Amino acid sequence: MAFAVEPGLRIELVAAEPLVVDPVAFAFDEQRRLYVVECRGWPDKMDGKRTKEGKIVLLEDVDGDGRYDKRTEFADGLTYPNGIMCWRGGVFVTCAPDIFYFKDTSGDGVADIRKVVLTGFDDKKYLAARTSHPILGLDGKVYITSGLKSGGKVQSPEHPERPVVTYTTDARFDPDTFEFEAIGGRSQYGMCFDSFGRRFIVANREPVLQVMMEPAYLKRNPFLSFAGTIQEVSDTQGKAKVRPISRAVVTADYNPRSMSAPHAGTFTSACGLVIFGGSGLTPEHSGDAFICEPAQNLVQRQALRSAGTTFRSAPRYTDKEFLASTDTWFRPVFLGGGPDGALYVVDMHRREIDEFAAMPQELRGVLDYESGKNAGRIYRIVREPHRAEKLGGALADLCRALDSPNAWWRERAQRLLFERADPAAVPLLTKMAVEAKLPEARTLALWILRHQRRLSSATIAAALRDPHAGVREQGVKLAAGALPVAPELAGPVLALGTDPDAHVRFECALALGSFDDPRALPVLAAIAVRDGENLWARTAVLSGIGTRIPEFLAAINRVRDVNPAGYAEVMGDLGRIFGAGASLDACRRFLTQVLIGGGNSGWGWPAALGLADGLRERRGAGAKGAANPLAALLAENGEVSAAAALEDFFHRAREFAVNDQMPTSQRVSAIAVLRYADLEDVGSTLEALLDARQAPEIQLQAVRTIGDFGDPRGARLLVQQQNWIHFTPQIRATIIAVLGARDFRRAGTAGARPQMAEVLFSAIRSGVIKPLEVSSSERSRLLEDTDAVIRNQAETVFQRLVGGDRMEVYRAYRDILKVRADAARGQSVFMRACSACHMYEGAGGKVGPDLTGIRNQPADALLLHILVPNFEVVPNYQSLTISTQDGRMLTGWPSAESDTSVTLRTALGADEAILRKNIASLEATGTSLMPDGLEQTMTRAELADVIAYLREGNPALR
Question: Which residues of 548-568 are buried (b: 16+ CB within 10 A; e: fewer)?
Answer without folding.
Answer: bbbebbebbeebbeebeebbb
